[in-house]
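Bug #77: duplicate submission created two jobs. Keeping one. Sequence:
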Amino acid sequence: MYNNIKFEKNEGLATVTINRPKAMNALNEDVLNELLIVFHSIAKDDDVKAVIVTGEGKAFVAGADIAQMSKLSALEGRKMMSLGHEVMNYIENIEKPVIAAVNGFALGGGCELSLACDIRIASTKAKFGQPEVGLGIIPGFGGTQRLARLVGKGMAKYLIMTAEIIGADEAYRIGLVEKLVEPEELIDTAVKTARTIMSKAPIAVGTAITAINKGFDLGMAEASAFEIETFTTAFGSDDKSEGMDAFLNKRKAEFKNR
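Kept job's structure:
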């Protein structure tokens, strides 16, 4: 079904692997379209409770496909960037936790893909960067916006304007990565993290993602009002009744709703 990605599902946990190792998993239009298709499918699949995104081989995603991009006109480039934004926005706003397991190079579009995920877990061998200005362009899949929101405006400007490639330790220090592990522990750690989240109330997890994402760019008063609305959604669910009953009766909660 997919030519550029691998999709696996195991007991409610989906794994999406970018699978172009000869091209360092570079993102071209075909990969972007397949990512959009697979995440639309994941959103509709009630059996999937969480997602891990990673790369095949030595790279997570080493960037957008420059060989393809170099041939595009400005209008064609705009169309590709619009597709990239559609993909990243969809991944960011899906009401299921998405964890980036960054195994190697996460450059350009690869860094932007990791930014669109809810949580980033990186191998100590991972490398991050936005090298676009060295190619005469700027990040075009949301990098100028998400990077600044994650690490701060000054650090984002530094990384984008210098095109510096940073190691996993520095990425962790500046808050670009939430967890840092040895390479052999990467997938197991991502799976363990996903399973931990999956053990919680799925409606609560989904509404928390929405509350954080949509409230982040609002003023505090508007964001607080939005939190009340999303809280009410979770509070009115069967999961709330199950979770609180389990707590009061000192038993493990059995959540069922999506």
